[in-house]
Amino acid sequence: MTLPDVGQLPAGLTLVYRDGQLVLTGNERQFGKPLSVDFAAGRAAHRRQFGGGRGQLVAKACGLNKGLNPHVVDATAGLGRDAFVLASLGATVLLIERVPAIAALLDDGLSRAANIADTAPIASRMTLRHGDAAEALAALVADAAFDPEVVHLDPMFPHREKSALVKKEMRLFRELAGDDDDAPRLLEAALDVATHRVVVKRPRKAPPIAGPAPQHTLEGKTSRYDMYVHRALTR
Q1: Percent of the chain beyond pLDDT 70?
Q2: What is the model's pTM?
Q3: Which of the pair, 32 or 106, is modelled with greater confidence?
Q4: Which of 60, 73, 200, 227 fits 216 for a cystine, CB–CB 3.0-4.6 Å?
């Protein structure tokens, strides 16, 4: 298989195919475990079957708990976990990822999911675009001919050393993505594009993103969703 062109990777990181799956890997002591996207097995499969359905916080924040299947732009797609949950519950999702290597992992994961019976219907509701949502969200949405009822944001936030040591799997991801210092600009772009609401995932005790105050908040044990509502979702 031909490796995708993702430009220059940070020193010590490599993209390889292992068992037919694209993997980003490096020294585990430095970067933690290798990264890949697998929507058909592991954590994604478990969450799809046992995660709580439309009662999950992300589903409630995006309006799926009302029996709706909105069009959701996941403007900070990352490894696609929340996007896959939303699509598995019936939403149509546009994933936008700005880091080339992570976008390549997503593309590989979606391609494989599209060829597996259990996940093919879900993958058919997921579309990927590579680009910087803070810089060009409107253009990326227009390019995909997508109706952006809801924009979901999960920006990377500055972390303490303690939390960085605990979450080993995020070391490699952070090496590529860094922190989202442009989160206020991303929120502004999302508010301009979303026709109905913007939902922002935050650590439970973190302040809101700088800018307009959220009208509603949904809070869980470790995280919360700040909600900026233009109008009610209906069908």
Answers
A1: 88
A2: 0.91
A3: 106
A4: 227
For CA atoms 22, 5, 138, 35, the dihedral sign is positive
82 annotated as a binding-site residue: yes
Q: Structure tokens of 193?
A: 């594009």
- How many angstroms separate the CA atoms of 131 and 214, rounded? 26
Q: Is 226 annotated as a binding residue?
A: no
Helix (H, G, I), strand (E, B) or coil at 126: strand
pLDDT tens across 76-127, in order? Answer: 999 999 999 999 999 999 999 999 999 999 999 999 999 999 999 999 999 9
Question: Would the annotation count 169 as a binding residue?
Answer: no
Is 185 labelled a binding residue?
Answer: no
Asked whether residue 188 is marked as a ligand-binding residue, the answer is no
Question: How far is the CA of 142 from the CAs of 68, 73, 145, 182, in angstroms?
Answer: 23, 12, 5, 22
- Amino acid identity of residue 83, one-letter, is A
List the 150-153 sheet strands across, edge first.
126-130, 92-97, 71-74, 150-153, 197-203, 223-229, 216-219
Structure tokens at 32: 């933690």
Tell me the Cα Rg of the chain: 17
Question: Which residues is 202 bridged to in the sheet?
Answer: 224
Cα 10 to Cα 105, 122, 184, 201, 221, distances in angstroms: 16, 33, 26, 27, 34
Closest CA to 100 of 214, 8, 184, 210: 8
